[in-house]
Amino acid sequence: MSRYVGPSCRLCRREQTKLFLKGPKCLTEKCPVERRAYPPGQHGQSGGRPRKTSEYAKQMREKQKVKRIYGLTERQFRNTFEDVTREPGVKGTNLLIALESRLDNIVHRMGFASSRKAARQLIGHGHIDVNGHRVDIPAYRVAPGEEVRVAPASRELVAVRLAQEAATRGQPVAWLLIDTDKAAGRMTERPTREAIPINAQEQLIVELYSK
User: Packing angle between helix 91-100 and helix 74-84, nearest 10 degrees?
Assistant: First the structure.
């Protein structure tokens, strides 16, 4: 399955909730999911008798929502789930922790990119260093204590500066220590479920993949 390249707001409308795929713009713009509170497509406004949502449909929608928030393909998302099933602990929590530990998510959380999509582009173009070494793999899993920084030659990029300015208006997560002046940060600890600001019912994803 190829990566989705269509309108981001269409995905929000499909999930009937804001996924914040466009970064700060989602906070300032009038979101289409609020103006058109129905799914996209020719059947989005179709009336008729409402149908009861099955358990499978609930599980599928929750999986699609989380997958789209982090911008992964189906294969990437499924592989991440299979990786965490071999780890001790609660599978659903481990899944979210693994997704939050991805380098593209960390770069976005630190405010060096306006969205996870923009973070993947920065990483792919070699603008991000981990512990002083260039890493161009967005799926790289950052470990506690590792330093993530924008490469010195890339700190004045317009995209990075604008992202940092917008990030000052937000609230950083507690498990990241950020030095805005140096465009660097560090994961201080492995995030807990309570510290991950994602509205998700991850147990539904576990049930879906455990069938």
Answer: 120
List pLDDT tens digits, range 2-31: 566 565 555 655 555 655 555 555 555 566
Q: Which tops the pLDDT comparison, 53 or 164? A: 164
The answer to whether the Cα torsion of 128, 130, 133, 137 is positive or negative is: negative
**Residue the block writes with tokens 């950083």:** 172
Task: Note the helical H segments in 85-115.
Answer: 91-100, 103-109
Separation of alpha carbons 98 and 141, rounded Å: 7
CA dist., res. 98 & res. 96, Å (int) = 5
pLDDT at 129 over 60: yes
First-to-last alpha carbon distance for the chain, in angstroms, is 21
> Hey, what are 142's tokens?
């950052």
